[in-house]
Structures are given as C-alpha cells and as structure tokens.
C-alpha cells in the first residue's frame, strides 16, 4: 500500500489532497480525501458601484471552488470570523445516510463566532455541478457561496470528449444591502425590493466586462458550469454568436440538445459545451433577469486568444414570457444510455413503473400573522427551533422541540390563518412518493429537496389535479434536485425516500425561505441500522435541549 500527499496553496487557501493508492489485490480502497480550510470573514466590495459588506472565504468572493471526483470524501474546516452564527449547506449533495452534514439549521448547531468546525461529507455516487452557500438568516445575499464540481471517476465513461477547460459561471441577482438589513426589513414585514443588478462570478456593472473573464482558443470546446446562486430572479444566459450544448443538469447527463439561450432558475445548475467556432473576436456572455418589471443584466467578455476585436454592439435579446421558458423545460431529457457516477446506464431505473404510495401536495401559502408577512406550505409557516430538529429526534427529546405532521398532505380548502411552527413531516422509509408544488403567487418560485434527486415529471399552468398525471414524462424526465414553479402554476416530482435523515424542503427564493416557505421531512429507517443511517459523529456540535444529554444507543451494523 502506497500513499502520496500533494500540497497546493492558492490565494491563501490550503488544499491538501491525500490520495490513498491501494493495489487492486488489497480489495476496496478507501475513497480519497480532499481537505479544505476556510476562513470566513467580512470584507468590503463595490460590486455595483456601492461599497458594501460581503462575506469572503479565504479572502475570495465568490468562495473557493470545490473540485472533486465521485465518492471523494470532502473535509472542510470552517473558521467563523463573522460576528454571527454560521453554517454552510451543500446544495444538491445528497449526503447518503448522513443528514448530519447537511448544514441546515434543522440538522446542525451553528458554528459560533470565533470558533471552527469541520464538515465531512462524501460525493457518494454523484457527478455534476452543485454549489454551497451560508444557510443562516439572509447571509447568502452577501456572498459566501461557491461552486462544487464533481467529475466522474477514472474509467467511468463520460458522454462527451474532455473539454479544453472547465469554467465556473456563477450568476445571480444582487442587492446593495447588508444581509442584516435584508433580514430586518423582512422581520418588519417589508420587502427588500428589487435587485440592484446581476453578478457573473462576483463581477457586476462595467467591471463584469473588463478585463475579459475567459479566453478561448479557436477550434476548442469549453465546458461552462452555470449556477444561479441568486435569491430571487430567474436568469436567462446566452453568448453572442455561440450555441450551447446542454450536457448536464443538477447532476444528471442530459440529451445533448443545442440552445441559443437557457433559463437558469434560482438554485439550478447546468453544464453546457461551447465550441469556439466563430471568427476570433470578443463575445459577450449575458445573464439577464426574467419575468421582472425592471429587468437588469450583466455581461462578461469571452476573448478568443489574440483577438483585439471588441464585442459586436448587438447584445442578443432575451426571450419574452414564461411560456417560452416552460416549453424549454419540456424539451429537457435525461440521456438514458449515459453513465452517471456508476458504470451502468443512469436511466436503467424505470421510475415510471413504480406505484405511487402517497401524494404530498404542497401549496405555497402567504399570509400575515400579527401584521407580519409569512410564507409557508399548506398554511404552516416554518420557524427554526432552538434545537436542530435532527438532534432533538436523535436524542429522543423531539416532544420538547416540535410536533410531527402539523401540516397535512394537501392544502386546507380555504386560506385559514397561518400557523407558525417548526414544520416537520414524516415519510415512510423507501416509499415512492409524488410531491406536487403549487404556486398561486404572481411571482416565480423554485423548490429544492435536500438529500435526494427527484424525477421532475410534469408542470403546467393553473391548479394541479390527478388527471394531469397523464401529461407526466414517465420515461426520461431529468433526475435533479431543484424545480421551478411558474406563477399560478404547478410542478410535480417523484422520488423514493430511501435516504434516512432529516431533510430540508425549501423555496430557493430566499425571502420566501426566510419567511417560512420550507419544511423538513424526517425519514427514519425502522431497522436503526448502520446500513441505513450513520450515527451522529461525536464531534458534532450540541446546542439547545441536547447539551449534556447522554448519547442514545448507536445504530448497529446490519
Ligand atoms: C479547528 O481547527 C483545528 C486546527 O486546524 C483542528 O485541529 C480542529 O480539529 C478544528 N476543530 C473542529 C471542531 O473542527
Ligand atoms: C447519450 O450518451 C451516450 C453514451 O455516452 C452518447 O453516445 C449519446 O450520444 C448521448 N445521446 C444524446 C442524445 O445526447
Ligand atoms: C478546478 O478544476 C478546474 C478544471 O479542471 C480548474 O480550471 C480549476 O483551476 C480548479 N480549481 C481549483 C480551486 O482547484
Ligand atoms: C401497481 O398497482 C397496480 C394496480 O393496483 C398493480 O396491478 C401492480 O401489480 C402494481 N405494481 C407493482 C410493481 O407493485
Ligand atoms: C423516548 O422518550 C419517551 C418519553 O418521552 C420514552 O417513552 C421512550 O421510551 C424513549 N425512547 C427511547 C428509545 O429511549
């Protein structure tokens, strides 16, 4: 058995990559570890012409990119040098058997200022593009986010040739307000208003266009990993004079259709291949807000190596209306013959033939409580408890913290009064469930489920009804973790609840999330076995009602 250690230092970040190389006759090697040390601080940046306080990781904005391969173990030692509690969540990483690392206020105690805490998670059987962000309060509106890129292991076929480079494109709306100001506006029942602009990789306004963001060599092909890391606006992304070949979406290889522009909704990630097949020159890539009264956009420059021809003045027009967007979504297909993280074809799982055991219909509800605006599902507006829900459950003190299943599987007939509580529902382990989201609001929504990938089988205008199931794509819907819901529309997903843990279901629209449009699904394996769920790591932080309690009986090997 041989072990090699490589050390690299980039922009103050220390990345230690330890590869355990074990000869094949020893049997299964432990999966490699990738180590990060993150110092999280405030800094001042003028992103849209106004100096403001932002969240930096190792001095970087956006935060450092996490590059890894399927099944790598990721270890992130987080030093909280803010003046507020901090947690990171890893959007789209499934944490098989391990909601202990999900980094939401319902699963983890916050890292208090002046201390450090180490997250350890595995990109188990996953490939694709994801991102992380700070999950407490409105912190993510001022940064602290970054790309997670999971490449296939060696020898696992990838359904396209290796690109010349693999580039991050983090796009999002931006507000010139401090995150504490955003939170207190929402606490006071006020809206933080429209975004001040759009950022591409942390650059906005004139700064986005100069200097060029990427250099292309003519004749080569580039992979762009595009994530909408904003909090409210759906964005349309396009590149002057270039088509984009869609190859991956939220961790699944797609049928490789070409698009001249793509809608990227809040919390979504996708990968496109771009051929540098045009006349050498500068070209603009544009991210512009969709469905907003006062649109805004950002443009960054892709320069062909050696070019001194400025970009053409005509910026491609964005598409209009949301029917275009819905039709584009309908055209997305899973590539049923491509490998994913494992060598078998990813689509060999015939989800369309499994019987649904339960339908959970989640209608977005908005209301006022004591004069304050609240959002929720089915009349229940979630509020975090002083003890993370997962810990309360594990230590068997949940009755002191929350009540299960306060919310029904379908919305109450009329909009009754909003009920504010920790919103926790249970799902039976390994059952196949249909979840329907209904958004009666005039604005877009985008919903995410932690711990899982789901089949995004259908969406449409108006209210959902069971006969709309005949419109579902039961063959090659993309398996993903986030789905948009258009105004006054529904979206339906299907998934098997086979990942034991406590999982956040949330609106990615962070005002709605903050005001209660989220819940947790508790999935418990009756076997209490390590086959199904890990024990809480002894290093996990304790807070609230579980401080000083003895550890409960461990889950045992199967
Ligand atoms: C804090 O950082 C130190 C130094 O890197 C490390 O040894 C320790 O394990 C970390 N503590 C936690 C709780 O992660
Ligand atoms: C799907 O993946 C296979 C296997 O890599 C590839 O040969 C094929 O071109 C892909 N199909 C489409 C339509 O993208
Ligand atoms: C991540 O991988 C990409 C593509 O190989 C590379 O360009 C980039 O420098 C890497 N970033 C880090 C921080 O390792
Ligand atoms: C699904 O339900 C149908 C009708 O109730 C039944 O005939 C069929 O056997 C079920 N399929 C499976 C795989 O359980
Ligand atoms: C959990 O607590 C309840 C009382 O709150 C008790 O009846 C039950 O036996 C406890 N279960 C375990 C596994 O300790």
From TrEMBL:
Pfam families, sorted: Cu-oxidase (PF00394), Cu-oxidase_2 (PF07731), Cu-oxidase_3 (PF07732)
Coiled coil: none
Highest rank taxon of the organism: Eukaryota
Cytoplasm found in the keyword field: no
Alphabetic keyword roster: Signal
Family: Belongs to the multicopper oxidase family.
Protein name per Swiss-Prot or TrEMBL: L-ascorbate oxidase
Organism: Lolium multiflorum (Italian ryegrass)
